[in-house]
TrEMBL record:
<feature type="region of interest" description="Disordered">
    <location>
        <begin position="44"/>
        <end position="65"/>
    </location>
</feature>
<comment type="function">
    <text>Plays a role in repairing double-strand DNA breaks, probably involving stabilizing or processing branched DNA or blocked replication forks.</text>
</comment>
<comment type="function">
    <text>DNA-dependent ATPase involved in processing of recombination intermediates, plays a role in repairing DNA breaks. Stimulates the branch migration of RecA-mediated strand transfer reactions, allowing the 3' invading strand to extend heteroduplex DNA faster. Binds ssDNA in the presence of ADP but not other nucleotides, has ATPase activity that is stimulated by ssDNA and various branched DNA structures, but inhibited by SSB. Does not have RecA's homology-searching function.</text>
</comment>
<dbReference type="Pfam" id="PF18073">
    <property type="entry name" value="Zn_ribbon_LapB"/>
</dbReference>
<dbReference type="InterPro" id="IPR041166">
    <property type="entry name" value="Rubredoxin_2"/>
</dbReference>
<keyword id="KW-0479">Metal-binding</keyword>
<dbReference type="InterPro" id="IPR027417">
    <property type="entry name" value="P-loop_NTPase"/>
</dbReference>
<keyword id="KW-0547">Nucleotide-binding</keyword>
<feature type="region of interest" description="Lon-protease-like">
    <location>
        <begin position="346"/>
        <end position="434"/>
    </location>
</feature>
<keyword id="KW-0346">Stress response</keyword>
<keyword id="KW-0227">DNA damage</keyword>
<dbReference type="InterPro" id="IPR004504">
    <property type="entry name" value="DNA_repair_RadA"/>
</dbReference>
<dbReference type="GO" id="GO:0003684">
    <property type="term" value="F:damaged DNA binding"/>
</dbReference>
<keyword id="KW-0234">DNA repair</keyword>
<keyword id="KW-0863">Zinc-finger</keyword>
<dbReference type="GO" id="GO:0005829">
    <property type="term" value="C:cytosol"/>
</dbReference>
<dbReference type="InterPro" id="IPR020588">
    <property type="entry name" value="RecA_ATP-bd"/>
</dbReference>
Length: 434
């Protein structure tokens, strides 16, 4: 017979301890008392296990090498993020804002793999049927279970190729008195689902809600329980969706999957440049093409800038898709090192396509786009600006520069502007724009 007790759990780092309250001794954040399931005979069981036999350490050379066979999801961008496909028994938590496309992606995945158990705690089977009809899914090997009791859901596992739980925050067990979505319920339900997935070697996807701060709802320990944590992001007003691996025990965490939301669901993007580059003529002032690295894949994006005379005592600095503090730093370099009087002008910078640029490889492109708009003179056709800009105005080489330039040449950008051609930003402006 099981019973429960209260246990301190830090909501920031996941630290837990019985008989503690207040601030977390690990990170100093405030935690809360969480209902936790324990067994009456837990102390006796621990004593017996120590007497019967304890696990002994083994040497690394005696451990057999095993390579798990991957299960292809038949969705190229999802396979890329997972590291080549799913591993039997792998537990994946996919999180993102409401309406971003998590359920749509998982329903498409279930249709691709087949023989799937889809446990829905949020939507009725009728609502799922409406979505399936819209996506054109007519598979007869999908089983749907409308259930929020995790114990009933666990008993429904059989010999499926895939299991989906949508979502983990709706699941609950009667062994705990807390409401569904509470920290104790989320953690205990995740443990039980993980246990059955490992026992039967069934890949399991769990949908997770997000908080107002943009983090996964529930304790941080939930991210430690699962094997893989995927983050689905994108602007719901645009068709672009990005899938990132925040944690992955079976693959890399630097890969990014790119999807496009259409009427018939999420479609993997093969021609990435058609999203981030203008379809029309880019031979205008203030437009510069650069290359950013998403995982191991270089992406060409268009940096747009607009410089207009300001009548305000403090000119505007507006950045869309670029860190505004990085923009202010680059403006200071242009003012001090290049002699541009930008303190009298409003400066607007935008990254076309809705993607966010965070790496410093786009510094040179931002500087040249601002200078191009200031002089109202476009860069030569086929130009690619690539390089980090220092406070001295120097241009620095970036990671995987040759790979980025090679990809750009393949798409017709045969005039790279990098640290190898020009050493300083003021030289680039004088040589290209003056």
């Amino acid at each position: 017979m099981a019973k429960s007790h209260s246990q301190f759990v830090c909501q920031q780092c996941g630290y837990s301890q019985v008989g503690w309250a207040g601030k977390c001794p690990n990170c100093g954040s405030w935690g809360s008392l969480v209902e936790t399931l324990i067994s009456k005979d837990s102390s006796e069981t621990k004593t017996k296990s120590r007497k019967v036999g304890s696990p002994k350490p083994i040497s690394l050379s005696s451990i057999p090498s095993r390579r798990s066979a991957r299960i292809s999801t038949k969705i190229s961008e999802l396979d890329r993020v997972l590291g080549g496909g799913l591993v039997p028994g792998q537990v994946v938590l996919i999180a993102g804002e409401p309406g971003i496309g998590k359920s749509t992606l998982l329903l498409q995945l279930a249709d691709k793999i087949g023989n799937t158990l889809y446990i829905s705690g949020e939507e009725s089977v009728g609502q799922i049927k409406v979505r399936a009809d819209r996506l054109g899914i007519k598979s007869k090997t999908l089983r749907f279970l409308e259930e929020t009791d995790v114990d009933a859901a666990v008993t429904s596992f059989d010999s499926e190729k895939l299991a989906v739980v949508d979502s983990i925050q709706t699941m609950a067990t009667q062994d705990l008195s807390g409401l569904a979505g509470s920290i104790g319920q989320v953690r205990e339900c995740a443990f039980r689902l993980l246990r059955i997935a490992k026992e039967k070697n069934i890949p399991l996807f769990m949908v997770g809600h997000v908080t107002k701060e943009g983090t996964v709802a529930g304790p941080a320990v939930l991210a430690h329980i699962v094997d893989t944590l995927l983050w689905f992001e994108g602007d719901k007003s645009l068709t672009l969706r990005l899938l990132r691996a925040v944690k992955n025990r079976f693959g890399p965490t630097d890969e990014v999957g790119i999807f496009e939301m259409e009427d018939k669901g999420l479609l993997p993007v093969t021609n990435i440049e058609k999203i981030f580059l203008s379809k029309g003529n880019t031979y205008v002032s203030g437009s510069v093409i650069t290359s950013i690295l998403q995982g191991t894949r270089p992406l060409l994006v268009e940096i747009q800038a607009l410089v207009v005379s300001s009548k305000l005592p403090f000119p505007k600095r507006v950045a869309q898709g670029v860190d505004v503090r990085r923009l202010e730093l680059l403006l200071a370099v242009l003012i001090r090192r290049c002699g541009l009087p930008l303190y009298e002008y409003d400066v607007f910078v935008n990254v076309a396509g809705g993607i966010k640029v965070t790496e410093p490889a786009s510094d040179l492109a931002i500087c040249l786009a601002i200078a191009s708009s200031f002089f109202d003179k476009p860069l030569p056709k086929g130009s690619l600006a690539l390089g980090e800009v220092g406070l001295l105005g120097e241009i620095r080489e970036v990671v995987a520069q040759d790979k980025r330039v090679k990809e750009a040449r393949r798409l017709g950008l045969v005039r790279p502007i990098t640290q190898r051609e020009i050493k300083y930003v003021n030289e680039a402006i004088k040589k290209i724009l003056k």
